[in-house]
Amino acid sequence: MNYSFKSGYYKEGNRTFIKIPFNVWEVCGKKGNLPAKVVIDEAAFECKLIPKGKGEYAIPINKDVFNKLDTGSAFDVNFTLLEQLARINHDSPYNEENPIRNIDSISYLKQPSDGYCGQACLAMLAGVSVDEVVRIMKSRKWQASISKVLETLDYFGFSYRKPVYTQGKKVQFPKCCIINVRSCPKNHLLVYFNGTFYDPTFGIANDYQYENIINYIEIIAAQ
After folding, report:
1. Within this chain, do residues 208 and 162 fall inside the same structural domain, yes or no?
2. One short Pfam family name for this protein (predicted)?
């Protein structure tokens, strides 16, 4: 079912939202973080509606969408609830039986600028350019969340295990993994392969500051 209304926007910190002017629990009959297809004026995108309590919800608007809008007037907004958001890997030519490549080596790639470490890590694993990963993920600076990283691993046909939390201790890493490191302003990702750390910011190293490591995700390359 399609739900329509007119509304302006509001800010919370660095984020932009549109408040849904009705009780979503009562009107839509659903609760929780609700996946939806949203159209604001002529800008269409998918997102999860964010609950604010007692049936009040807001629509998050990313910067790319917001820049397309005429902020001088109220928006025409409509949304349709979805069973799930379209995943990055929904039209992938790869799968676990036919991954993009067998990871038997890593060619180092430096991230083009701050905020692209996740994309650079995936590009090193897949053997493609950072620009190609950005295109597949549809995620730019600071947008490579762990969930999107996992979806992109699915796209490339790489199998992987759940994150392992190291609690700052020195551990024996598996042959290939993505490492999540505590950093500012966002956490930082790098690749570990066969005894070597490939950091998209700082380069190649044979050791790392283990106390800064949060967790790692083992990548299981096809044999």
Report:
1. yes
2. DUF1905
Reduce the DSSP state of residue 28 to 3 states and report it.
helix
If one compares 148 and 223, the residue with the highest pLDDT of the two is 148
Strands (DSSP E) found in the chain: 2-7, 10-12, 15-19, 34-40, 43-53, 56-61, 75-81, 159-160, 164-165, 176-181, 188-193, 196-199, 203-205, 213-220
Tally of domains within the chain: 2
The three-state secondary structure class of 12 is strand
- CATH number reported for the structural domain that contains residue 153 in this entry: 3.90.70.10
- Tokens encoding 169: 């201790």
Summarize the confidence of residues 62-81 as an average pLDDT. Answer: 88
DSSP 87: P
Quote the crossing angle between the two packed helices 130-137 and 146-155, to the nearest 10°.
100
pLDDT tens per residue across span 122-157: 999 999 999 999 999 988 888 888 888 998 998 898
Other beta carbons within 10 angstroms of residue 219's beta carbon come to 22
Q: What is the pTM of this model?
A: 0.65
